[in-house]
Design goal:
By secondary structure, the protein is of the alpha+beta class. The protein has six helices and eight strands, in the order ββαααααββαββββ. The chain has a four-stranded antiparallel β-sheet with strand order 5-6-7-8, with helices on one face. Strands 1-2 form a two-stranded antiparallel sheet.
């Protein structure tokens, strides 16, 4: 299963987004590389949140991330060493670029940006570990993936709950190297372009923008996901473009 998400570029003081590389792994070494870098990113970004975040709930979540992912990386490193596999000691270029952009976020937008980073990162991590737990080529690493999954899913549930309680919608983006934008719910035209959202991701983004009863979701020839949904008691056509913009026109 391939997982792809993008966070858009820093725009003023309110929007920040980043590009996370796909995290599917076909070999033991590939899994160690991707899982280790992902874990390092979780720790480093969460250490940053410990000092930069304003919301106490976000800070508490960051503390959990540092503790749990440090422990997981230590365990993974020990298994990799036993299996004579290399263990990355630093972030790759893409993750470092994301961390740098997060570090540059203004105080007013940091919490929102960090939460969106964690949503994307845990979606990817859960998929990576699920895939390897099922189809991995190394028994010890498959066991590690299986045993670590419940913790990752718990993190995923926590960050989704935090996102729902935040005062505004998080930045929403796609999986290619394009700029993204915060969710919009006006009648502006959606932007055509190569759209890498899966159907489930598209539905989630539309629901996050405040819509319910999403039905008939399909991607058109311009790369725009289109559906019928309800908001404020009104049924309306809704579109999600490759930048993550959610647009609608009330009937």
């Amino acid at each position: 299963m391939k997982i792809e998400r993008l966070l858009a570029t820093l725009a003023g003081a309110t929007a920040i987004a980043f590009a996370l590389p796909a995290l599917a792994a076909d070999t033991a070494q590939g899994f160690v590389d991707k899982a280790t870098v992902g874990g390092l990113f979780e720790v480093e970004s969460s250490k940053l949140a410990d000092t930069a975040a304003q919301d106490a709930t976000v800070k508490d979540f960051a503390h959990i991330m540092v503790t749990d992912h440090t422990a997981a990386n230590t365990k993974l490193g020990a298994i990799a060493s036993e299996q004579q596999l290399d263990v990355p000691g630093a972030l790759d270029t893409k993750h470092q670029a994301i961390l740098d952009k997060l570090n540059a976020a203004k105080e007013g937008s940091f919490d929102q940006a960090y939460v969106q980073v964690q949503r994307d990162a845990h979606d990817e991590a859960v998929s990576l570990f699920e895939d390897y737990a099922q189809d991995g080529d190394n028994a010890s690493l498959k066991t590690f993936a299986t045993e670590t999954l419940p913790t990752l899913k718990m993190h995923q549930d926590k960050v989704e709950a935090i996102a729902k309680t935040m005062g505004s919608q998080p930045a929403t983006t796609d999986a290619s190297d394009n700029t993204g934008a915060t969710n919009a719910t006006d009648s502006a035209a959606p932007v055509a372009g190569a759209n890498s959202f899966t159907e489930d991701q598209a539905k989630s983004r539309i629901q996050d923008a405040g819509y319910s009863e999403v039905s008939g979701l399909a991607k058109d020839d311009n790369g725009i996901w289109r559906t019928q949904a309800k908001k404020d008691g009104k049924n309306m056509p809704v579109a999600l473009d490759y930048q993550g913009n959610v647009t609608s026109q009330a009937n």
